[in-house]
Write a structure and sequence with these properties.
- The structure is a single chain.
- This protein is of the alpha+beta class.
- The protein has one domain (about 45-200).
- Helices cover about 25% and strands about 20% of the residues.
- It has 3 helices and 10 strands, in the order αββββββββββαα.
- It has helices at about 5-30, 165-170, 180-200; strands at about 45-50, 55-60, 60-65, 70, 80, 85, 110-115, 120-125, 130, 135.
- A 5-stranded antiparallel sheet has the order 3-4-5-7-8, with no helix packed on it. Strands 1-2-6 form a 3-stranded antiparallel sheet, with no helix packed on it.
- The radius of gyration is 22 Å and the shape is globular.
């Protein structure tokens, strides 16, 4: 039989173990949150861009940005509004852009650079219309601006990297000797990161 002292020690150990484990379990649960498009449908394949309760999401092939938008590396320099862990989209942390058209709300929506004048960038949702004398946003939707952003490492495409510098340095060597894999990371991650650095998102 256990003595009272042994039982107390066992109880303290279990309590300490649970206390240490609980934050980890919470982080895992938050990382596995479901992402939703503005119409409430599930964004299959999207992953949260943070561990908060309400955060923007991006696809596994995109880079999360701090303004809740996504940079798709399959289309360099293409921004997109994707999904959010808040199904209602009432949270200010959701990427509340391009919600004026119901056709945009059942999927992600590209965000196109319309102009960049006097250090001010303006964007359009989905497309531009240049059929007239003066280009406008498609469907005559209003142009809009986007806050400056930074790359959010550790999520979506950069889920295996905790810092941007780690992502960049990973192109330099490969402990497994797989040269092709190293080049793939360099092209898929290094190039878009460089483009983002050179062209600030404003």
């Amino acid at each position: 039989m256990f003595s009272t002292t042994k039982l107390e020690r066992t109880g303290l150990f279990l309590a300490s173990f649970i206390a240490v484990l609980s934050p980890s379990l919470s982080a895992v649960a938050l990382a596995n949150q479901t992402c939703y498009y503005p119409d409430g449908s599930i964004a299959q394949g999207d992953k949260p861009c943070g561990n908060g309760t309400d955060v923007g999401c991006c696809g596994s092939g995109a880079i999360c940005l701090s303004n809740s938008l996504c940079m798709d590396v399959r289309q360099p320099n293409t921004l997109a509004r994707s999904s959010c862990t808040d199904k209602t989209w009432n949270s200010g942390n959701c990427p509340n852009y391009c919600l004026q058209d119901t056709s945009f709300n059942k999927s992600g929506c590209s965000i196109i650079l319309f102009s960049y004048l006097d250090s001010t960038a303006e964007y359009c949702c989905n497309n531009m219309d240049a059929s007239g004398n003066t280009p406008i946003c498609a469907n005559n939707y209003s142009k809009f601006q986007i806050p400056d952003s930074s790359i959010v490492p550790g999520y979506a495409l950069l889920s295996e990297y905790t810092t941007v510098s780690n992502a960049m340095s990973s192109t330099g060597s490969n402990p497994n000797g797989d040269h092709h894999a190293t080049i793939g990371v360099g092209v898929g991650v290094g190039v878009p990161l460089g483009l983002i650095t050179l062209a600030s998102i404003a």
